[in-house]
Design brief:
6 strands; alpha+beta; 22% strand; 5 helices; Alpha-Beta Plaits; 6-stranded antiparallel beta sheet
Length: 196
């Protein structure tokens, strides 16, 4: 979830679905096996719910701004965690910094490996899109203030010239049934609906 302060710390290219105060929420499903099967099922579930009368809210509130199916490429762990790379998607964290990028894969993976030396970083999971050729993503699992972590990572490990960063966005974790951040979003100038 991204409150106004996290939106303010976000960097995105013009026209990004993560720009202009959008994408306050992200959902990441970590799957085993072929993720395309689950992605295809989720993509058709909406229509089945509508057909059976189980999804009856307005169309403009059903928009998904960004959807993809990513495949794991590599993972890097902070040495003090004593984790192995396969543990990274499940590491404890208070926030994530999501970075979508194109190009510079080798340099970006080398950067990801160095990021785990920063004290607020527990792990980095690097993925590639199965639907959009050349689109890659790093999910950095952080502890503490996600906005401060994003800024620190940009300062310590800026992107190389071969990598086009499409979005670099900090998010805080949502604790189920505990939403102290909701009023900050409601009372801000962020969009009030997900209408396109």
């Amino acid at each position: 979830m991204a409150t106004p302060d996290l939106h303010a710390a976000r960097e995105s290219v013009v026209g990004s679905p993560f720009g202009a105060g959008r994408a306050s929420f992200i959902t990441i499903y970590t799957l085993t096996g072929d993720p395309q099967i689950a992605f295809d099922d989720m993509s058709t579930l909406r229509e089945r719910l509508i057909d059976t009368g189980r999804m009856a809210f307005p169309e403009d509130q059903k928009a998904v701004r960004e959807g993809d199916c990513f495949q794991s490429v590599d993972a890097f762990v902070s040495p003090p965690t004593k984790l192995v790379p396969a543990d990274v998607p499940f590491v404890g964290h208070t926030g994530v910094v999501l970075r979508q990028r194109r190009g510079g894969q080798d340099a970006a993976l080398a950067r990801a490996e160095r990021l785990v030396e920063i004290d607020v970083v527990h792990g980095v999971w690097s993925l590639s899109s199965r639907l959009r050729d050349g689109l890659d993503m790093d999910i950095v699992f952080v502890e503490g203030d996600a906005a401060a972590a994003a800024k620190k990572m940009r300062a310590v490990e800026p992107a190389d010239s071969a990598t086009q960063v499409l979005v670099d966005a900090p998010y805080s974790r949502i604790n189920p049934m505990h939403y102290p951040w909701a009023d900050a979003i409601r009372n801000s100038d962020l969009p009030k609906t997900v209408a396109l």
